[in-house]
Design a protein that fits this description.
With 162 residues, the protein is mainly α. The chain has four helices and no strands.
């Protein structure tokens, strides 16, 4: 039974090595080639999940006294699988960032220049927010005056004899 498990381990090792190599290529590709690679990696990740399931089934069949070693290996494989999925997600995001920067005309400015630009934008937003708040207070004050004036006029009409 452990020979089946070891065979699955070898298959898992080969598959995860292939996935790792392909994940590294994702950010560098464009268009259909990128879509095809992503689909391929997703398919391989599914295969790896299925292998893990098979391995878990094998571990359940192992006598309890020998199961500890295999269980710890399974935890390690599951962690590796989680890391692969996270790396794959990051590689797709990295690609998105590159395309976004290219579309927005970001020519690779230094992070210091980007930080300065962000601070200037933040200051501009704060100034605009303060202006909006002042305008809102003026509008509220004007509305309050209008309400009081309307109330005063109604009071005058009730008290006067026409």
């Amino acid at each position: 039974m452990s020979s089946d498990f070891e065979g699955y381990e070898q298959d898992f090792a080969v598959l995860t090595a292939e996935i790792t190599g392909r994940i590294g290529k994702v950010p560098k590709l464009l268009g259909d080639e990128k879509k095809q690679l992503i689909a391929n990696v997703e398919k391989q990740l599914e295969e790896a999940r299925e292998l893990l399931e098979q391995m878990e089934l094998e571990v359940r069949e192992i006598p309890p006294q020998s199961r500890g070693m295999y269980s710890s290996r399974m935890r390690s494989y599951k962690q590796e699988m989680g890391k692969l999925e996270a790396d794959f997600k990051r590689s797709r995001i990295a690609y998105s960032d590159e395309v976004r920067n290219e579309l927005l005309g970001d020519d690779g400015n230094s992070s210091e220049n980007q930080l300065i630009k962000l601070r200037e934008e933040r200051a501009h937003l704060l100034d605009n927010t303060e202006r909006l708040e002042r305008s809102s207070r003026r509008l509220e004050a004007g509305y309050q005056i209008a309400v009081e004036t309307a109330h005063f006029i109604k009071t005058l009409h009730k008290s006067s004899i026409f």
